[in-house]
Design a protein that fits this description.
Length: 111
């Protein structure tokens, strides 16, 4: 059975460099303490070490009162290819931090 992933609305141009955001709803007083974004294989969820999609930088912060976002800057890729980006966060919740993960599909299309 194939796994369905949410797709970013906008398409990525392999000649461009754009930012993409993963939103997370957090509790009052909670924030993201660490975040990572990786390109993964859609079938196995393993990191795709051979990818030509480049993750240039990752940052995170508040979007609204309870919503935080992890933003990743992407370049490269091959037109006609769908890439799967997995975002993993840990929060500042105490006594134990919460962990969350989501994967989204990024469609790479020329122009």
């Amino acid at each position: 059975m194939a796994v369905e992933f949410e797709t970013f609305r906008q398409k990525h141009d392999p000649q461009g460099r754009l930012d993409w955001t993963f939103p997370f709803l957090l509790g009052s007083g909670e924030s993201i303490s660490t975040a990572t974004v990786e390109v993964v294989d859609s079938a196995s969820s393993a990191v795709d070490a051979a990818t030509d999609l480049v993750i240039e930088s990752t940052s995170w912060g508040r979007i609204s009162a309870t919503e935080y976002g992890v933003t990743v800057w992407i370049s490269g890729g091959t037109a006609g290819t769908d890439y799967y980006l997995r975002c993993h966060i840990e929060t500042s919740a105490t006594p134990l931090s919460r962990k969350a993960e989501t994967t989204k599909r990024l469609r790479c299309r020329q122009g």
